[in-house]
């Protein structure tokens, strides 16, 4: 695979991948991929990740059904990270939000603001 010859996985065999919504360029989540996850992602057109906490390859959304269909894959100038643009099914965040980045720091009030509405109830999904 031509893409793999341009990438530099870290000493654990992983590369960070920023997942972005293709419709509005919003960052949905950050995940890690090993070579198998990336190959499976390219092969199936569905985002696969390497779950460090479970030490295994998995389809993003395999539990919730909130899958991510790949539209475009980009890599940085040094080949050390990926940006993958996807069509998101339902939501990307386990907490019930479209994006994992649903909280914003307000430096004027030194507070954290929730800037999105929940799109699903995680207690009913997981």
Strand content: 35-45%
Mean pLDDT: 97
SSE sequence, one letter per element: EEHEEEEEEH
Distance between the termini: 35 Å
Quick one: CATH class? Alpha Beta
Helix percent band: 10-25%
Could you list the spans in which at least 5 consecutive residues all have pLDDT below 50?
none
How many discrete structural domains?
A: 1
Keywords: Amino-acid biosynthesis, Histidine biosynthesis, Hydrolase
GO molecular function, one term: phosphoribosyl-ATP diphosphatase activity
Protein name: Histidine biosynthesis bifunctional protein HisIE
Catalytic activity: 1-(5-phospho-beta-D-ribosyl)-5'-AMP + H2O = 1-(5-phospho-beta-D-ribosyl)-5-[(5-phospho-beta-D-ribosylamino)methylideneamino]imidazole-4-carboxamide; 1-(5-phospho-beta-D-ribosyl)-ATP + H2O = 1-(5-phospho-beta-D-ribosyl)-5'-AMP + diphosphate + H(+)
């Amino acid at each position: 695979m031509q893409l793999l010859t341009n990438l530099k996985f870290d000493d654990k065999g992983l590369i960070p991948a920023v997942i972005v919504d293709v419709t509005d360029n919003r960052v949905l989540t950050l995940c890690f991929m090993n070579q198998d996850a990336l190959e499976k992602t390219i092969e199936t057109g569905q985002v696969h990740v390497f779950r460090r906490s479970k030490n295994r390859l998995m389809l993003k959304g395999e539990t919730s059904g909130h899958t991510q269909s790949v539209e475009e894959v980009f890599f940085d100038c040094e080949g050390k990270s990926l940006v993958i643009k996807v069509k998101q099914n339902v939501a990307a965040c386990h907490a019930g939000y479209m994006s994992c980045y649903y909280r914003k720091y307000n430096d004027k009030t030194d507070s954290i603001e929730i800037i999105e509405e929940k799109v699903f109830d995680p207690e009913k999904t997981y």
